[in-house]
Amino acid sequence: MLSKPPGLRQILELFRNPRGAVSPSRGNIELWANIVILAAAAVFMLVKGATFAVTLGTVFAIWAMLTVSLNLVVGFSGLLSIGHIGFFGLGAYSVAILTSTTSYEQLRTGSIPTFGWPFFAALPVAVVVAGLVALVVGIAFNRFRDDIYVLVSFGFAIIAFNVFLNLRPVTRGAFGIHDVARPQIGSWVLDSELELMLLALVLLAIVVGISWFIVSSSFGRVLTAIREDEQVAEVFGYHVTHYKLAVWVISAMMAGLAGGMFASWTTFIDPNSFILLESVLLVSIVILGGLATIWGSLLGALAFVLLEEGMRFLPGLPQEYVGQARQVVLGVALVLLMLFRPQGLLGRFRL
Amino acid sequence: MNASNSANREDYILQTVEVSKYFGAVAAVDGLSIAIPRKGVTSIVGPNGSGKSTLINLLSGILPLDEGMVIIDGLGLRVVHAHETPDHSITRTFQEVRLFNQISVMDNILVVLTTRGFWPSLFERSKRRHREQAQEILEKVGMWEKRDSLAMDLSYGQRKLLEIGRAMALNVNIYLLDEPFAGLFPQMLERVKDILKDMRDEGKTIIFVSHNMDIVREMADHLIVLEDGKFLLSGEVENVLNQPQVIAAYLGT
């Protein structure tokens, strides 16, 4: 079945034809996934109030930038990368290093230069840095495929983490970087949660827009063909390595953008935000939401954020177990999904 | 190389010169020199393991040449890059059908038709011209009604037809077809035959591998027989098929 991507249209259809939702059809899981997740988000926000909803919105926007951009690589191009968090980290560190004004004498590594750039000057640099690193890494990765690709991208995530942790003269190691600048337009400093959420949502809209532009073009169709059979795409005149490299770099730049936003939002980053586990979570969310569907990635990110934040309020679950419980729930969800719905909630493609 | 040596070089659109391909110590194609006439349909036959599919893979750049040279329309190549074969006016189908499985039938054709190059293709949405061309091809291979199905959901015969349609969409001069008739029901078989006859009548060069001697007799004008990766015989179909050594050793009919 190759229907239009599900979404609001199907929910509107529910109002027109309520019986359609309970009659057995293949679109039903997609419809119910939409309804349940969106309804859960609405209920959550109503119950927890505006302040919480705003924070949730920012976290969602950052995760969604990552899942949508990762889906370009994994879902549309078929390159199962678990190194995406590395580019997120590169973006975050670029913005943090360029904007932070705090020097750290206690590191005893000499005086660390501070730049004190404004956020909006540092953000493009973060995007470019992520893109350039992706270009170099991508050229090396292009000879790999399938399982091996998973392993080398895994390697990239590990290397990136260790660079953040150990390149202390630049990244300040485990101390992390404090006082990352908040976005500022003229004299207007975006330092309230609401302003930051709006900025994050604008950036998300840009990421979604570019992703949509790519996947709906002839270029995007070639990507899906490459995903299906690289060699045959080659026989039909497509220089496959160029296509894969292009989408890899674009995706990494989006992750860099998300990273920059993240650093400014938290104002403090350290290597622990960019561990491999986060990368694995990302891939899980992309698969859960559905490969090769932008809406699925948005919905997946929303479900994940709701799950993550919602479990804080589960009665009887001590705070210190929330993190682990979240992973267990996500793991179980992934196993169930792979068993019963391998294309993910809204997927257009099976791994 | 038989009587073909006396003919003018211009008459051959595709030649191999001392081409070899080794898999480990085994020579799948062993110093093979053949010439494929510009006009008409050429069939490559030979027992299993005689190097037919390997030859097609070498000509289409799927496998790299270990030795020798390929001459495509007068242009000598020691390395054939798969992504450049359309520029040399070559395309192919596969013995085991290889479609873009998890995209629609329509998209399988459109992906071949649409504009090449990074920026042009990025800024191109579905164009009416491409859709019309795709429709024409899908109608020709009888797959228009299936245009929105995923390629993976088609029957074997339909997949075979779609693969031929996809090759037609590239609109090149040389078609390398690996077992285009294998495993087809009579109705599908006739359809494939008709499509190939039409292509031949349009002046395309068709080279196909087959085991079915009745089809070879019906469809092919020229025949090239391989044995153990080496050249054995070539010429007009009836002449070659009447050679006692061919009859006795390989064809059995």
**SSE order of chain B, one letter for each helix or strand:** EEEHEEEHHHHEHEHEEHH
Q: Please outline the major beta sheet of chain A.
A: 2 strands, antiparallel
Global mean pLDDT of chain A: 86
Helix share, percent of chain A: 55-70%
The biggest beta sheet of chain B, please? Answer: 6 strands, mixed
Number of separate helices of chain A: 14
Task: Tell me the strand order in the biggest sheet of chain B.
Answer: 6-7-8-3-9-10
Give the percentage of residues in beta strands of chain A. Answer: under 5%
What do you see in this structure?
The complex is a heterodimer of chains A (351) and B (253). Chain A has 351 residues and is mainly alpha-helical. Chain A has helices spanning 8-16, 28-48, 50-76, 84-99, 119-141, 146-166, 168-171, 193-215, 218-228, 230-235, 240-266, 276-289, 294-310, 322-340, and strands spanning 184-185, 188-189. The two termini of chain A are 16 Å apart. Mean pLDDT of chain A is 86; it is low at 1-6 and 21-25. In chain A, strands 1-2 form a two-stranded antiparallel ribbon. Chain A has a domain at 51-277. In chain A, a hairpin with a 2-residue loop joins strand 1 (184-185) and strand 2. Chain B is an alpha/beta fold and 253 residues long. In chain B, 34% of the residues lie in helices and 25% in strands. Chain B has nine helices and ten strands. Chain B has helices at residues 52-59, 105-113, 118-122, 128-140, 156-169, 186-201, 213-219, 237-241, 244-251; strands at 12-23, 26-37, 41-45, 67-72, 75-77, 90-92, 174-178, 205-209, 222-227, 230-236. In chain B, the strands form two sheets. Chain B has a six-stranded mixed sheet, with helices on both faces. A four-stranded antiparallel sheet of chain B has the order 2-1-4-5, with helices on one face. In chain B, helix 2 (105-113) crosses helix 4, helix 2 (105-113) packs parallel to helix 5 and helix 4 (128-140) packs across helix 5 (156-169). The longest helix of chain B is centred in the last third of the chain and has 16 residues, at 186-201. Chain B starts with 11 loop residues before the first strand and ends with a helix.
